[in-house]
Structures are given as structure tokens and as C-alpha cells.
From TrEMBL:
This is Haloacid dehalogenase superfamily, subfamily IA, variant 3 with third motif having DD or ED. One of its GO terms (molecular function) is metal ion binding. SUPFAM superfamilies: HAD-like. Keywords: Hydrolase, Magnesium, Metal-binding. PANTHER family: 6-PHOSPHOGLUCONATE PHOSPHATASE (PTHR46193:SF10). Its cofactor is Mg(2+). Belongs to the HAD-like hydrolase superfamily. CbbY/CbbZ/Gph/YieH family.
Amino acid sequence: MCLSADIGELPVQGKTAALVGMPKLVIFDCDGVLVQSEEITLSVLISMLNARAPGSATLDVTRFIEHFRGRRIAECLREAECILDIHLDNEFEQHFRQRALDALTLDLKATDGIVEVLDSLQVPYCVASSAPRSKIEHCLRIAGLFSYFEGRIFSCYELGRWKPDPLVFLTACDTYDIAVSDALVIEDSVTGIQAAVAANIRVLGFGPPHRRAQLAAAGALPIADMREVLAIFN
């Protein structure tokens, strides 16, 4: 989906309704869309990586939260090894995941407005995430959203292919017997948006105003408030 250069000239809700139309399936990403987990987990990861870094060669937290957002953790670790010139043992990812789960248990919250959106949707919806199923379910339970998505979870780990590969979105459409032209993806990361674009599925990019240009450049229509999704169905 290509966005026009004048996207900022119209109110987001009106532009959203006009561009997207009425979807028959809504596919949510989990981290950063349903729950506000990316900053928590990636802050833990970057802190652990910097603790292994020699001297002053460390990763800037703000920059690398954005850089790693939506990507497979194993891929992030390989890149960090090259940047920091370090070797991570086989147990590093396991330790990270446990510390991240502990941090999520303390601080994770559902995205503002998501319950209102889910309660209002009259079409099928699901979650399609690059995270392992165990993490998806853990996050949804902590945030009080698991009852909405039980039996509606698609994990890249179970498919063996990760975003920006489109398979997880295509699998969701196939499962619900919905054409990609009738689906809508809501993502917060460039990687996830690229996966939706590769699947030929229309995509909303959810994030704060300062990320609007980044999300639009990746191929999404940016929204800053989750409730804007409801404009599509008016």
C-alpha cells in the first residue's frame, strides 16, 4: 500500500476511514500494540548487553529500542555481538527472557483504548506476533487481555519464519478464510509493517506522533490513539 505525500493534510480518522474501508479481519501485533512491552523488554536487553560491552562501547538505549523494535531476539543478539565485539554464550537469551518476564510482570500495561476497541469490534480479530506463544500469553494475561485472544494467537516461532516475512499474517488470513484484501493489520514496528506490505494487507502504524514519519515511510497509515481504529467501522 502506498501512502500519498499529503497524508498529514487530513484528519487521521477521516483519512483512515477513507483509505481502509471495512475490513473483515483485524490482525493485531502484540508487543507495542496490544500491550506496552517493547520499551520494557528492550531496555532489559540493552542493559544486559551493555554490561557485557568492553570499555565505552555501549548501545544507546533510545536508539536501539527503535532499532530492535519488532525484530527476532536472536537476530538482535547477533547484531549486538558484531557492534560490541562480544561473544554471547548459549544461556544469554534464556537469562534475558527470564529477566524480561520479571520486568513485564511488574510493569506491563494494556495499551490505552485497546479494551474499548476490542469490545466494539463486530468482525473477527486475532494477534500475530514474532514472539514465542508463551510470552504472548504471559503478556496478555498480565494485561488482562487473554480472554479476548484465547484461541486467536499466531506465533512466528510456530511457523519458523519471522517478520518481515509475511507468513504469520497470511496464516491468520487462511485460518479465518479471509482474503488479504479484506484484512487489516495493526503494527508498531517497521519490521511488522514490512511483513504486512509483503502480504498485500493494509496496515495501520500505531505509535506516538514523533514516529509518524517512520511508520508512514514503511508503508502504514499512522495512528497515535488506538481508538482511531473504530473510525474505520463508522
